[in-house]
Amino acid sequence: MSQNNVIPIEHNATQDAQKTRHPGLNLGPAHAHEEDTREEMVFGFWVFMMSDLIIFGLLFATYVTMLGGTAGGPGPSELFEMKSAFIETMLLLASSFTFGMASLALKYREDRTRLVFWLVVTLLLGVAFLFFELKDFHTMFDNGGVPSRSGYLSAFFSLVPLHGLHVTGACIWLVALLGQLAVYGLDAPVKTGILRLAILWHFLDIVWIGIFSLVYLGGLS
Amino acid sequence: MSARRLNEHEARECKTEQRSYVWGFALALVLTLIPFALVAFADIERLTLWVTIGACALLQVVVHLRFFMHITLDKNKREDLLLILFTVLILVILCGGTLWILFDLYQRMLPNMMP
Q: Taking a contact as any Cβ pair under 8 Å apart, which residues of chain A between 179 and 208 contact chain B?
């Protein structure tokens, strides 16, 4: 690709202590032209993420208070499988890493191939995660673990599928961003969209740490 | 060539950031494998097991925030960190209160709801 539109940046002392403007990876001075608006939009998204964290935190608390409410129905040890929980964890962790690689490709590379490559890998990992999660729920249903069976299962199915729903939303958003990337190229809204989706994606991985530790490992130990 | 031409500073920054993501991934992987391995293979006391799982989870959250979300203790990033800390404060009050009140009720009135 062209090497002409390199934005010259002089290396000086202030650059080493470069100001970071928002959570997540900052694109830096080479992408300066819409940075001011991006700062607000990404920080605003961060505020939304934190409110989402409150919802998840309270659903975790509800889940813990309902641990004893199995009402004679199946409990964690009968319903959960370590193997699939482990596979889901690995898929989501790997997808977080590949999204990080996509962010770096966005920041440091002119062409879109590598960015699109990492985004597509992330999307595939996300879809694989959803596939295993749905398979899990299917197995649970077969073993009598339906949401209406007990208070415990109602709490489980309000917490874990809500996370799955978030991942579904993030995957749809990723597809939409890939479409925008194809139609509009790497313009400012697309870049901002990728930055925000990166925050959502890493955030969902953090929520999953809570789910696999508390719900799955806590339930199986 | 496909790469944007990076100046010296950017090239250095790129390397550092790449390494940071790899480190984050490696640390998160270790902190995931430890609790899974303990639950699958080790035969230790339940309470110790739970404390270890909890500690690994907390550490992993910090690793994700630091290496993937780039939340650091730098002065110029305080707003993001403050927002997290405030959210955690709200969560501690709400979740702690919920658990306290409900388990107190269980103990007094619904002993069979105790897990």
A: 199, 202-203, 205-206
